[in-house]
Amino acid sequence: MKILIILVIAVGIAALLQLGRVYDLTAKLRKTREEEISFADNKMNAMLWLVFMVLFYAGVIYLFIEYGDYLPVSASEHGVGVDTLMSFNMIIITIVFFAVNTLLFYFSAKYYYKKDRKAKFFPHDNRLELVWTVVPSLVLAIVIIYGLQTWNAMTGEVEDGALRVEIYSKQFDWTARYAGTDSEFGLSSYNLITPTNPLGIVTDDGIEEVTAEIEGQVDKLKMELAYERGLLAAEKEELEHQLHEADHHGHDHGDHEHAEGDDHHGNDAWKDVNMNRIAEIEEMMESDKATVLTEAAIEAKREKIYRLELQLQRILGLDNNTIGDVMEWEAGLDDQVVRELHLPVGQEVEFIFRSRDVIHSAYMPHFRAQMNCVPGVPTRFKMTPTITTDSMRMITDNEEFDYLLLCNKVCGAAHFNMQMKVVVQSEEQYKTWLEQQKTFYVDESKENNESEDVSPADDNVAEPADAGDQTATID
Amino acid sequence: MADHAQAHHHEESFISKYVFSMDHKMISKQFLITAIVMGIVAVMLSILFRLQLGWPGESFGILETLLGKWAPDGVLDRNAYLALVTIHGTIMVFFVLTGGLSGTFSNLLIPLQIGARDMASGFLNMLSYWFFLLSSFIMLASLFVEGGAASGGWTVYPPLSALPQAMPGSGTGMTMWLLSMVLFVVSSLLGGLNYVVTIINLRAKGMKMTRLPLTIWAFLVTAILGVLSFPVLVSAVVLLLMDRTAGTAFYLSEIHIAGEALPVTGGSPILYQHLFWFLGHPEVYIVLLPALGISSEIISTNSRKPIFGYRAMIGSILAIGFLSFIVWGHHMFVTGMDPFLGSVFVFTTLLIAIPSAVKAFNYITTLWKGNIKFTPAMLFSVGLVSTFVTGGLTGIILADSALDVNVHDTYFVVAHFHIVMGMSAIFGMLGGIYHWFPKMFGRMMSTKLGYAHFWLTIVCGYGVFFPMHFVGMAGAPRRYYDYSNFPFLDWVMDLNPIISTFAIIGGAAQLLFLFNFFYSIFRGQEAVQNPWKSNTLEWTTPVERIHGNWPGELPVVHRWAYDYSNPNYDEDFVPQTTPLKAGEEEH
Ligand code: HEM
Ligand SMILES: [Cu+2]
Ligand SMILES: [Cu+2]
C-alpha cells in the first residue's frame, strides 16, 4: 500500500514536471503578455459570470424546494413565533441575496473591457450613499424590533404553577429530575455523586454513606503508605542513624560527667522507642501487607488523600436550609430521577440545566429550544409543548417519530451520540407515567446497594450502562 | 538616502537576505510561503474528515496509511475526528487568514504603498515572523503527541480543554495548542504595532491620510483591532494554562469527572467565553478587513474606475472596526446570559450590517459602467463581494437571538462563517497573490491557469457551504462525528456525500494554484514595472527587488490612489505621483 502511494506521488511529480515543460514551450509560442487580457478572454469571463449565476441560482432554488421544509411545525408555543420571525427574516435576506448578487453578476457580465471605451468617472454620489445607508437601517430597525419582541416573549417570567424539571448532563448522557410531591428539588452537591445517586442529591443517609466511603478510602490509602517498603526502609535507616549518632556522642564526650548523666537519662526512653519501632518496621516489611510503590505513586496517593480530605470538608460544610415548607436535605427524598423526559402537553415547563463535568448544550430542535449546561452555573429555559408525540407522528406521517434532546456543545469523544428521548403526552398519560417512576429515597433499594461497592472512584465503571451508553463509552 | 539604499543592496549575504532578513518584502514572502504550507495542511485535514462525514463508517485505505492508529481499518477514529476539526479551524483562522494574510500583505504593501523604505522596525518585523514560524511548528507538532492534538474545537472552551481527563486531546496536545497561541499572539502584536507606527509615521511627502489607498486603511484598522484584542486572548489562554497546570480555578467550579469530585470551586467557564470572544469577534474582522482592502484596490484598478465612495469606505472600515468590539456576546446567547444583555448584543450586532451593506453597494457601484479587465485577481475580488453578501446576510439571522437559539452551533453557523470568512477572506488572499505576484517575485503567474483555478474554486466553495445552511436548519449540530444515530436527520444527510465531493474537487483544484505559484516563481514570464496600469506607489519601484525600495529619492504624492479614467487625462490611469494639473480639483 505504502509503495503504491509513493509510486502515485512519484508519477504525479513526474507528470507535473512534464506539464511544466509543455507549458513552458506553449507559453514561448504564444508570446502574449500575461497581463494583457484579450477581448476573447474578457468576454468569456463575462459570460461565465452569467452561466455561474444561472447554475448557482438553480442550485439554491433546488435546495429551497427539496430542503426548505427543514423542520416539522414547531411543537412548542414560543416556537411558532420563532418560525414566523424566521420566515420574515428569510424572505428579507433571500430577496436581498438574489437582488444584490444579480446586480453584481450582471454588471460584471455587462461592463467587460473594450479598448475604445472609457469607464465612467464616478467617484461618489452622496444621495446614492445616503439611500443605501438609510434603507438598510430602516429594514434592520424592523428586524431588530420584531426580533426583540419575540425574544422578550420567550425569555419572560415563568408563570406560577409551571412544571419545573431539572436536566442534568454528563459525559455522555442526560438525566432528568422531577421535584416530587413537595414540588421542591432537594439540594444537590457534586461531592455526593455516587453510582446510585448520579445527581448528588443531599440526604442525611447520603452524606453518611459518602463520608464513610471517603474515610474508608483515606484509611486504606494511609495504610498503603504506612506499609510501603521504601518509606519503611528510610524510616528504619533514620532511626538507626539516630541511635548510632547517640552512641558516638556518648563515646566522644564520655568524660564530661554531667553531660553523660543527662544523656543517660534521656537515652533510655527514646532509644527504647526507636528500637521498638525498628522491630515493628521489620515485622511490617516481612508481612504480606507490605507494598512497593514508585515515588510518583506515593506522591499520587498523598495527593489523593489531600483531595479526599478536602472533599470531606466540603461535605461537612453543607448547610441544611429551608426551601418552601421543607428542609433542603429532605426535599430530595421524593425527587424522581429518570432517563427519559416526559412532558404534559399544554403545560408550561421551566427547565433548570446543570452539568457535572464539561459544558454541554441541551438542544431540542423540534421545540426551537436550546440552552447550555454549564458546570457550577445553573441555567434556565422555559417553554410550553403544544403537540404530543402521537400527534407529531401523524403530522410527520412517521410511526417511529420521537422528539429528542441532543447535545449541541462539543463535549468529548461520544458527543455525537448524547441524546435523550422526549415524550410529550396528555396530562393523564403523563401523570400515570410519573407515578410509576421511583422516588429517590426507596428503602429496599437502599439496603440492596449497601452491600455493593459504591466507592465514588468506581463511578464511571460501575454505573449501569443503558442503551445510549453502550456506544458512548470511550476506550 | 539613495546611496544608503544602494549600499545595503550589496552587503547582503545569503543568510541575511533569505533567512534572517529584515527587509519587509522578503519577510512578506516568508509569511506567504509559510501560510501556503499551513494552508495545504489545513485543506488536507478537512478532506480527511469530510471523507468520514460524506461516507460515515466506510473504510478508506488512505486514511489508515496516512493516520495509522488514528484510523484503524481505514475508519477515522472519533477522537481523531475532533482533533482534525480543531486543528483545521485553528490553522485556517489564525495561521492562514490572520498571520498569513496580514503578515504577507501588510508587510509587502504598507511600505510600498505609503512610500517608505521599510517598516519602522525591521528587527521587530523579523522577530514577528520567527515567532509565527515557531508557533506554526508547535501547532503542527501537536498533531503527533500522545493523545493527539487539541480536540475541543478551535475555541477550546474549558472545562473540556482544562481537564486532561475529559478527553485524550486535552492532554499534551492542548498544552501545546496554548503555547503555540501565546507565541502566535506575540508575533501578531510585534507585527501589528509595527504596522501602526509605520503607517502613522513613515508616509511619503503628500501622502495624507485621505490619500491613502484603502488597502492601507484596512491594514491600519486591522492592526489596531489586533493590538487591542489579542492581549485579551493571551489573558484567556494564560488563565487556562494555569487552570491546567497550577491548580487554579478561574474557569472551573463544582466538577465531578472520572469518578472524582475535583477540589475546584468558584470559577466560571463562561468567563473564558467572554474573554475569548472579546478577541474572537474582532478576530473575524481582523481576517476580513485586509481582504476587503485588497479587493477595493483590485476592483478599482481592474474596473478602470475610482472606487465608489472612498470616504464612505473609510467610514465603514472604521465603523466596523469600532462595532466589532461590542458585539462578542452574540456568540453566547444560549450560555444563560441575561436576556436583556442578549438584547443589547442583538442591537449592536445588527448595526454592523449597515456599514457592511454600504461596502457591498459601493463595490457594486464601482463595477457599474466600468471597463472591467478580468484578471484572475479581479475574478477573485468579484467573487469576494458575492460571498461577503451571501454570508453576511445569514449573519442577520444569527444575530437575532430568538432565531439563534435554534441554529446556534449547527451547520447553519458553519455555513455562515465559511462563506463570509472562509471564502471571502481566502478569495481576498488569492486575489492579492495574483495581483501582487509580479511585485513579489518579478514574474507573472499564468492567467489561464488562474481562470481555471477561480471558476473551480467558486463553484466548489458554494457547493460545499451553501447546502450546509439547510443541514443546519434541519437541526444538525456541528462537531458530530456521525449522524446515523439520529433518524430525523437522515433526509438532509443525503447532502453530505455531495458536499464532500465538492470539497475533494475544490481541494484538488488548489493544485492548479500551487503549480502556477511555484512554477511562476522560477519560470514565469518576466514582469514589467506596472503590469496592471495601477496608480499606487508600489508600481513606481523597479521590478528588481532592492533594499530601500526606491533607487533614488522617495516619491512625492500629489493625489489619491483612484484616479482611473479621469476625464482630465487621456490615459485611463493617473499615478499618485502625477502632480495635479493647473485648476484640477482633487476628486
Ligand atoms: C452582517 C454581518 C455579520 C453578522 C450580523 C454576523 C453575526 C454572527 C453571529 C450572531 C454569529 C454567532 C452564531 C452562533 O454561534 O450561533 C456569528 C458567527 C460567526 N461569524 Fe458572523 N456575522 C457577520 C459577519 C461575519 C463576518 C464578516 C465574518 C468573518 C469574516 C464572520 C465570522 C463568523 C464566525 C467565524 C463565526 C463562528 C464562530 C464559531 O462559533 O466558531 N461573521 N456571526
Ligand atoms: Cu456534547
Ligand atoms: Cu462574532
Spell out the blueprint of helices and strands.
The complex is a heterodimer of chains A (475) and B (587).
Chain A (H helix, E strand, L loop, with lengths): L1 H29 L8 H29 L9 H34 L15 H30 L7 E8 L2 E6 L25 H23 L2 H24 L4 H30 L8 H22 L5 E2 L2 E2 H4 L4 E3 L2 E4 L4 E7 L4 E5 L4 E5 L5 E5 L5 H7 L7 E5 L11 E7 L1 H10 L6 H9 L7 H4 L4 H6 L3
Parallel strand pairs in A: 1-7, 6-12
Antiparallel strand pairs in A: 1-2, 2-5, 3-4, 7-10, 8-9, 8-11, 11-12
Helix pairs in contact in A: 2-3, 3-4, 5-8, 6-7
Chain B lengths: L1 H10 L2 H6 L4 H31 L6 H7 L10 H37 L7 H20 L30 H30 L12 H32 L10 E2 L2 E2 L7 H35 L6 H14 L15 H29 L8 H24 L1 H7 L3 H31 L5 H27 L16 H4 L1 H29 L64
Antiparallel strand pairs in B: 1-2
Helix pairs in contact in B: 3-5, 3-6, 3-17, 5-6, 5-7, 5-8, 5-9, 5-14, 6-7, 7-8, 8-9, 8-10, 9-12, 9-14, 10-11, 11-12, 12-14, 12-15, 14-15, 15-17
One copper (II) ion (CU) binds next to loops of chain A.
Main attributes?
heterodimer; A: 475 residues; alpha+beta; Immunoglobulin-like; five-stranded mixed sheet; B: 587 residues; two-stranded antiparallel sheet; 64% helix; globular; binds protoporphyrin IX containing FE; binds copper (II) ion
Write a concise synopsis of the structure shown.
Chain A has 475 residues and is α+β, with helices and mostly antiparallel strands. In chain A, 55% of the residues lie in helices and 12% in strands.
Explain what you see.
The complex is a heterodimer of chains A (475) and B (587). Chain A is α+β, with helices and mostly antiparallel strands and 475 residues long. Among the domains of chain A are: 163-181 and 334-435, Immunoglobulin-like, CATH 2.60.40; 207-253 and 265-316, no CATH class. Helix content of chain A is 55%, strand content 12%. Chain A has 14 helices and twelve strands. In chain A, the strands form three sheets. Chain A has a five-stranded mixed β-sheet with strand order 5-2-1-7-10. Chain A is flat, with a radius of gyration of 38 Å. Chain B is an all-alpha fold and 587 residues long. Chain B has one domain (21-254, 261-540): Cytochrome C Oxidase, Chain A, CATH 1.20.210.10. Chain B has 17 helices and two strands. Chain B has helices spanning 2-11, 14-19, 24-54, 61-67, 78-114, 122-141, 172-201, 214-245, 269-303, 310-323, 339-367, 376-399, 401-407, 411-441, 447-473, 490-493, 495-523, and strands at 256-257, 260-261. In chain B, strands 1-2 form a two-stranded antiparallel sheet. In chain B, strand 1 (256-257) and strand 2 (260-261) form a beta hairpin. In chain B, helix 3 packs antiparallel against helix 5 (78-114), helix 3 (24-54) runs antiparallel to helix 17 (495-523) and helix 6 packs antiparallel against helix 7 (172-201). Mean pLDDT of chain B is 93; it is low at 1-9. The chains are: A alpha+beta (475), B mainly alpha (587). Chains A and B meet through helix 1, helix 2, helix 3, helix 4 and helix 8 of A and helix 4, helix 5, strand 1, strand 2 and helix 9 of B. The complex binds protoporphyrin IX containing FE and copper (II) ion (2 copies). Residues 155, 284, 287-288, 330-331, 349, 352-353, 356, 392, 395-396, 398-399, 404, 408, 413, 416-417, 420-421, 425 of chain B line the site of protoporphyrin IX containing FE.
